């Protein structure tokens, strides 16, 4: 084997070993956070009071029913995706990013 081929083989083997080592290190580092995430149920808070306040006072009965149906549809989609969905009246304290906002139309 000529020196150029030996050098290329050495570089290729070193690169492969480096990739395998990096993958193993990443697996080891992520093992504990992933295990913790699997034990936590994600929670979303739907704020019924803000939803009702967002309905215009001159809204028709059909428009109000559509808004409430959309809100319940959002809750159903989140629930089907594995999230725990609660109403804001049951919340004592929660970070802002767990609240689901009504998309004004």
Number of strands: 3
Q: Write down the overall geometry.
A: elongated
Strand arrangement, major sheet: 2-1-3
Oligomeric description of these chains: single chain
**Major sheet characteristics:** 3 strands, parallel
The percent range for helix content is: 55-70%
Terminal Cα separation, in Å?
Answer: 72 Å
* Percent of residues in β-strands: 5-15%
Structural class comes to mainly alpha
* Low-pLDDT sequence parts: none
Give the SSE string. Answer: HEHHEE
- What is the number of helical segments per DSSP (H or I, 4+ residues)? 3
Mean pLDDT: 82
Q: Evaluate the radius of gyration.
A: 26 Å
Polypeptide structure, described:
It is built from three helices and three strands; from the N terminus they run H-E-H-H-E-E. The protein has helices at residues 3-38, 48-54, 61-80; strands at residues 43-46, 84-87, 99-100. The longest helix is centred in the first third of the chain and has 36 residues, at 3-38. The chain starts with a helix and ends in a 5-residue tail after the last strand. 1% of the residues are buried. The mean pLDDT is 82.
């Amino acid at each position: 084997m000529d020196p150029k081929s030996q050098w290329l083989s050495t570089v290729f083997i070193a690169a492969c070993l480096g990739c395998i080592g990096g993958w193993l290190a990443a697996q080891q580092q992520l093992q504990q956070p992933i295990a913790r995430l699997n034990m936590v149920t994600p929670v979303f808070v739907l704020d019924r009071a803000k939803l009702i306040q967002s309905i215009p006072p001159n809204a028709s009965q059909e428009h109000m029913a559509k808004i409430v149906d959309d809100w319940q549809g959002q809750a159903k989609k989140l629930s089907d995706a594995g999230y725990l969905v609660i109403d804001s009246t049951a919340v004592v304290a929660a970070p802002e990013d767990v609240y689901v906002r009504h998309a004004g139309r």
